[in-house]
Write a structure and sequence with these properties.
Oligomer: single chain
Distance between the termini: 37 Å
Radius of gyration: 22 Å
Number of helices: 9
Number of strands: 16
Helix content: 25-40%
Strand content: 15-25%
Order of helices and strands: HEHEEEHEHHHHEEEHHEEEEEEEE
Shape: elongated
Strand order of the largest sheet: 4-3-2-1-5
Structural class: alpha+beta
Length: about 400
């Protein structure tokens, strides 16, 4: 088990508060992100949380020995979920119409099966929404781990110019970056929420490829290759283009997000201007984003700044402009809140946010940078404080 009992109890306390807000008695969870959140481990099975319990009850199908150190009276080995109701009954607990399931993660067949564990049906509240809300505000232990992983993540961006060779394709460069990431402990797995969010370890795009829309809801697109229609291609990286590198910091349970822009040859003034606007917005965010600030104000300010600079046609894409400028980060790369103009969320201390004000200039490529921040009472702490300047592919940071 890769977490402490006290940490699990603290998280359960947060979940109980959310149960009150949603008028629920219990949750039955099975998604990998929530298994990781509550145990630090991955297993096939179920997690039952009740307002009367200090720790979750764990129903394990396999493996059954992954949680060494967890109280034995809270772990049950089962072959199928239909055994759960009788076990709960022995403890005076139940699955009822005040029990929520993870609608955002469960296939319909699994939802129907689990909903039949209750003779009166289950709640129509989506437990995945509740849990993503809870997970959006990190504990002190989570924040300590995120800072540690961010330090590892930054290492790769310092050496990217050393990895480049003339004549390389985008995929050639990405493969070199991925190799170095794996050598530094990257798990290689990129967790994202949503059924249409396939991705590998990140994205390397240059020149006109940045203007190719992808079928997934990410900021940057790219044509990709047949088996992955997004991101890097076999096309050679050409002179006088920007090369955007947006690789996930997947070095543990938690992820961080960094983007830096490199270039070959010379870039036109419009591209340099766009990148400077991105840098200014990142600095503005550090002082403006704090406890109590409406999330929507971030997108509105960024969009207005781009418009005043005459760059609105290129803001957050060109052929396909996305309507967000950042997102929560944690166990999944796309956690809440999402920084949109229509967001009703309010920043809370302990939220971890990736801000990515980017521009796509046709014929030149994608410009801008992205950092990961921890929201505090008086501002946002940048935990990925590498220089954000445009970087020629001939020198190191």
């Amino acid at each position: 088990m890769n977490t402490s009992i006290s940490e699990i109890a603290q998280k359960v306390g947060k979940i109980k508060t959310a149960l009150d807000q949603y008028h629920l008695d219990s949750l039955l969870l099975r998604s990998i992100p929530n298994c990781l959140y509550l145990t630090g481990s991955v297993f096939r099975g179920y997690i039952y949380i009740d307002r009367s319990l200090e720790l979750p009850l764990l129903f394990l199908e396999r493996p059954t020995d992954v949680l060494e150190g967890y109280p034995e009276d809270c772990i049950y080995s089962i072959r199928k979920p239909e055994l759960i109701p009788d076990i709960l009954k022995e403890r005076g607990l139940t699955i009822s119409n005040q029990t929520a399931l993870e609608l955002g993660y469960l296939p319909v067949t699994d939802y129907l099966r689990l909903s039949r564990l209750s003779p009166v049906g289950v709640s129509d509240v989506d437990a995945s929404v509740l849990m993503r809300q809870v997970r959006s505000v990190k504990t002190d232990q989570e924040l300590t781990e995120l800072r540690r992983l961010a330090e590892i993540h930054m290492e790769i961006y310092r050496i990217i110019p050393e990895l480049f060779r003339p004549g390389m394709s985008e995929l050639d460069l990405q493969h070199q970056i991925e190799y170095q990431m794996r050598r530094r402990g990257s798990v290689g797995l990129f967790r994202a929420f949503g059924p249409d969010m396939e991705i590998f370890m990140g994205n390397v795009i240059s020149g006109d490829n940045a203007d190719n829309p992808a079928p997934y809801d990410f900021t940057m697109g790219g044509k990709g290759v047949f088996a992955m229609p997004m991101g890097a291609t076999n096309r050679e990286i050409k002179p006088d283009t920007a090369v955007m590198v947006d690789m996930s910091g997947n070095y543990g349970v938690y992820q961080t997000d960094i983007t830096r822009t490199y270039y070959l040859g010379e870039l036109p003034e419009k591209a340099i201007q766009a990148h400077k606007v991105s840098q200014e917005l990142l600095l503005w965010f550090e002082s403006y984003a704090k406890e109590g600030v409406p999330v929507s104000e971030i997108y509105q300010h960024c969009a207005e700044t781009a418009d005043k600079a005459g760059l609105s046609d290129y803001f957050m894409g060109h052929r396909n402009q996305v309507k967000f400028v950042g997102h929560g980060v944690g166990i999944e790369i796309n956690e809440v809140p999402v920084l949109t103009a229509r967001s009703k969320d309010i920043f809370q201390s302990g939220m971890v946010i990736a801000l990515e004000p980017k521009f796509v200039i046709p014929g030149i490529g994608a410009l801008g940078a992205e950092n990961t921040y921890i929201i505090g009472d008086n501002g946002a702490e940048n935990i990925t404080p590498l220089p954000t300047d445009l970087i020629p592919l001939t020198e190191t940071l």
